[in-house]
Amino acid sequence: MYWTSLSDFLAMGGHAGFVWPSFGLALAVLLGLGLQSRARMKAAERENAEARRDLRGEGGSREAQA
Amino acid sequence: MHALANPARFLRLMAAIRPYAAVLAVLGLAIGLGWGLLFSPPDYQQGETVRIMYLHVPAAWMAMFIYAAMAVASAAALVWRHPVAELAAKASAPIGAAFTLICLVTGSLWGKPMWGTWWVWDARLTSMLILFFLYLGYIALWEAFDDPARAGRAAAILALVGAVNLPIIKFSVDWWNTLHQPASVLTMAGPKIHADILWPLLITALGAQAYYVWMLCLRVRAEILERQARILRFSAAADRRAA
Hints:
Chain A is built from 2 helices and no strands. Chain A is mainly alpha-helical. The longest helix of chain A is centred in the middle third of the chain and has 50 residues, at 16-65.
């Protein structure tokens, strides 16, 4: 461990105002993109399943008519 | 149905890779950044601000790598009309834009204490900003057309034309005067930085690469399933007309 105390670590040699926002922003961007990507995938899975269900449903009704 | 066969195999491949990419991304980023923050030494000139490097440099590498991957996939999409390549390029753009944003903002936060300015309009910073706008333009082009075939072609051409920016970014620090330091890891003579700094940097870079693959798995899956759904709805409508 390079640091000797937590306050030293948090102070970042007087550059806390530059180091911590950097890490905070990077984490927020990566996390945000991760959540958005996951939400998109779930939405696409739902949309796809729905389209398949509709297609099957129509096929079935057409067979019933015939 | 033939058009769906290949993407289906691709989906299975991505589903198999996904958990490994996720674990590698979380471990790589946690270990690399943790090491960089807690164990690596400060720079003798830059002090503790040098820790921003562990974000800035891998983000810059990823910003350029993802754009290169996007350009290659776009070329494959244009030449062979490969639908998966086109969707892989489309899925990559937001991930590349995210890394470019991280690179630009952390660079700015690093530049203020070290150079005395948030921003300079020199070749390296400007070409990186152009890369960010190329990503945004690419994403916007996809949204600008109703017909996905036309949107895909236009976006692929933009991705290819924009690739000329990549060597400009890489060599900008050698070709023009700049505040930005020249390459110190990817040089002809090998890395010029100490192992205590190089290791956390490389591990973070590995984690960032795995993060890209992870996000790509999620986003390509979304793109393929969406396109499939559109085809299914289209054929259902065609059936209705025929009936």
